[in-house]
Structures are given as C-alpha cells and as structure tokens.
C-alpha cells in the first residue's frame, strides 16, 4: 500500500480546452512544498515549455486555503546540516559546480549521495523558473490562499498572479528562520514591486495582505474565491491566444532584457524584433493587416470594434466569425 501511495503523482493535472492545464501543487496536509514535490514541478515546467499542445499552465494549491504554505523546513534543515560552515566565496564556487553537474546524467548520479545534491536541486528549480520566464507557454498562479517562501517564489516566476478574496497574504518569512530567500525571492519580488520596498519586506519578514499586494503590484487581481479558477483559466487562455513565437520573444525581451543595462536590453529587443519579422505567422498577420486596410479603407485596429476583436482573438486580423460575444 505504501509503495502504491509513493507511486502516486504529487501534482494533480486537469486538462482544459485551448491547451490550458491546471496543476494542483503541494498535496501535503499542511500545504508544504517538499523534496518530493520539486522534481515533479521541474518536469512539468519542462514538459509545458516543450509540448506545443500545452499553451498555458495554471498553478493552484491542493490545500483548501493555501497556495503553498512554504517549503518543508526539515528539507532545508537536513540539507543545510550537511554543508560545512564556509564563506559565501566557497558556496559561490559550489553553486557553479552544481550548475555544471546538473547538466549531465553521470555527474548528477555521482553527486546524488553528497551535499552537492542539494545545490543541484536548487539549480534545477532556478532553471525551471528561468524556463518559465522565457517560454512561449503562459504560466498563471491562481492563489487559492496564502503563499509564503517558495510558494511566493513560484508565483513570482509566473506571468500572472490572481488571488482569491479572503484573509490571505503573500511574502517571505525566511529571515525569521535565519536564512534569506533561496529560490528567487530576492531577485523577482523587488523587480515586481521596487527594490527598496522589496528589500524592506524581505528584511522584516512581513508578508503583504491581499489588498496591499494588489496595490504594490505583487499580484494582478483579487477574485471571488468561487470564481478564481475559471477566471485564471480565462486569463491564461486569453494571453495564450497570441502567436506563440511572439509570446516567447516578448517574455525574453522583458524578463531577460529588464535585467540588463538599457543599451544591452535594447540590443536584445532589436534581436528579438528582427528574428520575429520573417516568421510565417508574423508575415501572415502583417499581410492580412495591409490587405484588410486596402479592402476597407481603414486600419483594422481603428475600425469600429476592431481593437476589441483583436484583443479577444489574439491577432490583429482574422475572421470576424472567430470572435464570439
């Protein structure tokens, strides 16, 4: 019985129309994200990025009132106890070695019984988040409750964050346990809400209640609890309706370019723009836009209802019948 239970997937997947899937995370009774959850999460992100049939992923929690409580503390404590006290100069070198070792099956196997495995697991999570940030797949966090620590970090890596109405909060308590965030919190949250506000929140360890999170830009929308999933799927499908190559190009230009200098960011934007111009879908849409303009004597986006139809359809031109009321 225990072997059968162990074989059960930790993440529950539901498929919806339009290539949208819902992934229910953290089935632990307390809503914790643990060592066994990480590999499935990483594999799901990899699959969603590579499978053209998956256009969007909506993450939500399995706990009735929490998205993810936080990481399982025993996981962090046990891995931490295997690391000798050393300087950040040494741990920086270890992190680089872990990044290299994670790339090859043999080195992963050799590191499996060493303290380096914890570094590899962390590197795998960071790789998954970076994949989400540059993928043509849309990722949405449907926060059915509070999200702390790694729960917040998974949501920061998503393209959209919707939270259910209620007494919920999101943020980083790690400093209260003597550690900084380690799964992207120090980098992504300040980019969302501002460097100083993010710094103070992480230093204090105080989460943002839902209304405050919305006000500072940590989440995008607060939704009645009974409408959360339908709204999350709706918004995911809406963004996923855009041309796939363009979605990936925009995400790379914003998420990667936004971390570069202005000159380097503009260079990346130019590169993405020039690479997108000859793409078959872009050529089809631009030719259709010009043709529609000639036929109607007006630019499609300026025709009555034209822009609203384009937003709903996901393309600037197309059959009017494709857009439903």
Can you describe what's shown?
Pfam families: ECH_1 (PF00378). This is Enoyl-CoA hydratase. The chain is α/β, with parallel strands linked by helices and 325 residues long. The protein has two domains: 206 residues, 2-enoyl-CoA Hydratase, Chain A, domain 1, CATH 3.90.226.10; 76 residues, no CATH class. It is 52% helix and 14% strand. A six-stranded mixed sheet has the order 1-2-4-7-9-12, with helices on both faces. A four-stranded mixed sheet has the order 5-8-10-11. Strands 3-6 form a two-stranded parallel ribbon. The chain is globular and about 70 Å long. The relative contact order is 0.10.
Short description:
The chain has 325 residues and is α/β, with parallel strands linked by helices. It contains 15 helices and twelve strands.
Question: What is the H/E string?
Answer: HEEEHEEEHHHHEEHEEHHEHEHHHHH
The side-by-side strand order for the widest beta sheet comes to 1-2-4-7-9-12
Shape: globular
Task: Describe the main β-sheet briefly.
Answer: 6 strands, mixed
Structural class category: alpha/beta
The CATH architecture name of the largest domain reads: Alpha-Beta Complex
Report the C-alpha radius of gyration, rounded.
22 Å
**Count of separate DSSP helical elements:** 15
Binned, the helix content reads 40-55%
DSSP E strands, number? 12
| Span of the ends, CA to CA | 51 Å
> Which stretches of 5+ consecutive residues score pLDDT under 50?
1-5
Q: What count of structural domains?
A: 2
The assembly state of the depicted protein chains is single chain
* CATH superfamily annotation of the largest domain: 2-enoyl-CoA Hydratase, Chain A, domain 1
The CATH class assignment of the largest domain is Alpha Beta
Percent of sequence in beta strands: 5-15%
What is the CATH topology classification name of the largest domain?
A: 2-enoyl-CoA Hydratase, Chain A, domain 1
Mean pLDDT: 90
GO biological process, one term: fatty acid beta-oxidation
Organism: Streptomyces canus
Protein name: Enoyl-CoA hydratase
GO molecular function, one term: catalytic activity
């Amino acid at each position: 019985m225990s072997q059968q239970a162990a074989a059960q997937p930790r993440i529950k997947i539901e498929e919806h129309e339009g290539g949208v899937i819902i992934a229910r995370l953290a089935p632990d009774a307390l809503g914790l994200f643990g060592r066994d959850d990480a590999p499935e999460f990483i594999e799901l992100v990899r699959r969603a990025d590579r499978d053209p049939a998956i256009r969007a992923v909506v993450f939500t929690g399995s706990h009735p009132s929490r998205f993810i409580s936080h990481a399982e503390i025993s996981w962090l404590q046990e891995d931490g106890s295997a690391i000798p006290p050393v300087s950040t100069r040494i741990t920086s070198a270890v992190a680089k070695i872990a990044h290299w070792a994670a790339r090859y099956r043999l080195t992963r196997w050799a590191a499996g019984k060493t303290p380096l495995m914890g570094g590899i697991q962390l590197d795998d999570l960071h790789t998954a988040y970076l994949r989400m940030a540059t993928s043509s797949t849309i990722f949405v966090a449907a926060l059915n409750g509070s999200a702390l620590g790694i729960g917040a970090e998974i949501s920061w890596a998503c393209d959209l964050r919707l939270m259910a109405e209620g007494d919920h909060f999101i943020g980083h308590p790690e400093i209260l346990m003597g550690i900084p965030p380690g799964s992207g919190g120090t980098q992504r949250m300040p980019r969302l809400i501002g460097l100083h506000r993010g710094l103070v929140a992480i230093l204090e360890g105080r989460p943002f209640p839902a209304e405050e999170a919305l006000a500072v830009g940590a989440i995008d929308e607060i939704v009645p609890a009974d409408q959360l999933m339908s709204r999350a799927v709706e918004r995911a499908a809406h963004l996923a309706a855009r041309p796939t190559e363009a979605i990936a190009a925009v995400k790379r230009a914003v998420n990667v370019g936004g971390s570069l200098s202005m000159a380097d960011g503009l260079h990346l934007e130019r590169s993405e723009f020039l690479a997108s111009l000859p793409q078959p879908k872009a050529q089809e849409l631009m030719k259709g836009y010009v043709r529609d303009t000639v036929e109607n004597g007006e630019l499609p986006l300026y025709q009555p209802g034209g822009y609203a139809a384009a937003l709903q359809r996901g393309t600037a031109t197309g059959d009017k019948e494709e857009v439903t009321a």
